[in-house]
From TrEMBL:
Protein name (record): ABC transporter permease
Coiled-coil ranges per UniProt: none
Membrane topology: Multi-pass membrane protein
One of the protein's GO biological processes: transmembrane transport
Membrane-spanning parts: 12-33, 61-83, 95-119, 125-141, 171-195, 215-242
Length: 255
């Protein structure tokens, strides 16, 4: 029964997406919507195939920016979460600023980064770091501080040092929280890179989309969007696979 439930859970969203695509294709094929306004799914796939070499090159640039920014965000998030966990005063001082920073739209900050750092790859990576840093840090600090205090007191009474408490108790306990934040950040990373490319750049899917839009090639615009979606989903599930490899006990819990 459980196996059947798992299969149905996977099939339902697939069937729904196929229905949407079929309806979309039908509406455009019937001429109810002009193709220059909304290309049919088949037009988008054809554009993707015909322009695959160019799209692949731009995809590589965006992927590099997204992954690099995500990795940098992970490093800074770990450092910040550990400092905030160890020093309560630092958390009280910084936490509100982190929340406030998320109220400023990234689309406003990105042009400033281009003015300060130029139109190279650095501002794009910086944008990705900004959008990924918050969810990873907040989830990680939440995990580190959710450990039962009685357990910490117990191991401390047995002579455990701070580094041992962190490595043996806090860090393993915080891993699910960390990966939850990392998977959220993964969906932001590619889009963050694209936003940075929109506001200045020579290559990347964001640049390619702008060029296609200026040429009124909406099929290429939608093809770029499709690649961005696939790339984001791929990064998300890649992190999910890493989580399963690092935390095999989570799979045992599900079973």
């Amino acid at each position: 029964m459980r196996k059947f439930q798992n299969i149905s859970d996977r099939l339902i969203p697939i069937i729904f997406m196929l229905f949407i695509l079929f309806a979309w294709q039908f509406v455009v094929s019937m001429g109810w919507v002009e193709r220059f306004i909304l290309p049919a799914p088949t037009d988008i796939v054809n554009a993707l195939i015909l322009n695959w070499s160019d799209i692949l090159m731009h995809t590589g640039v965006t992927f590099f920016e997204g992954i690099t920014g995500l990795l940098v965000a992970v490093v800074f998030s770990f450092a910040m979460a550990i400092i905030m966990d160890q020093f309560v005063l630092v958390k009280k001082a910084i936490y509100p600023s982190l929340v406030i920073s998320q109220t400023v739209p990234i689309i406003i900050i990105a042009p400033l980064l281009a003015m300060w750092f130029g139109f190279g790859i650095a501002p794009k990576i910086f944008v990705v770091v900004l959008v990924c840093f918050f969810p990873i840090t907040i989830n990680l600090i939440e995990g580190l501080q959710s450990v039962d205090q009685e357990l910490i007191d117990l191991v401390r009474s047995m002579g455990a040092r701070k580094i041992q408490i962190f490595s043996k108790i806090k860090f393993p306990y915080a891993l699910p929280y960390f990966f939850s934040g990392l998977k959220i950040a993964a969906t932001y990373s590619i889009m963050g890179a694209v936003i940075g490319e929109w506001l200045g750049g020579k290559a990347g899917l964001g640049v390619y989309m702008l060029r296609a839009r200026h040429a009124f090639a909406l099929d290429l615009v939608f093809a770029s969007i499709l690649v961005i979606v696939i790339l984001s989903i791929g990064v998300f599930y890649g992190i999910a696979m890493i989580q399963k490899a690092i935390m095999p006990w989570e799979k045992l819990k599900e079973e």
